User: Which sequence fits this backbone?
């Protein structure tokens, strides 16, 4: 195996720092251990952010996420820790992490945590007209 789990998050310069744009990532294979039972917990993580000067590099994110596989964490703790580490590495204008954990004991747990850069305000949402999808042939 050439790669191993790693807590080091790498970044690269934001290619469009003059603009607010949303970066959305879905990470369907997050695992950690229940700190009480040692049983595995599985979750899909959804990361949405608006970069400032840097973006998170995907391979380092993959290795970072992998690093939790053998660690015990409560859902709330691990979600907030991941957000804190991503914010520290990238210093975004805005970041939201949603963790959707699979059922355990008959309970689904969703944890949503956010960061907003001090003084940052999102631009107002622009509502555009909806157009029905067209096939590749007209007629």
Assistant:
């Amino acid at each position: 195996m050439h790669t191993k789990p790693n807590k080091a998050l790498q970044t690269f310069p934001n290619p469009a720092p003059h603009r607010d744009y949303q970066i959305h990532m879905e990470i369907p294979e997050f695992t950690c251990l229940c700190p009480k039972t040692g049983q595995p917990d599985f979750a899909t993580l959804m990361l949405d952010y608006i970069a400032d000067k840097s973006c998170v590099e995907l391979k380092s994110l993959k290795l970072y996420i992998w690093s939790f596989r053998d660690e015990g964490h409560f859902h709330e703790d691990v979600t907030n820790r991941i957000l804190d580490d991503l914010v520290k590495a990238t210093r975004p204008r805005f970041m939201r992490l949603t963790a959707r954990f699979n059922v355990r004991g008959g309970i689904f747990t969703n944890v949503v945590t956010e960061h907003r850069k001090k003084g940052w305000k999102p631009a107002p949402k622009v509502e555009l007209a909806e157009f029905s999808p067209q096939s590749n042939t007209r007629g």
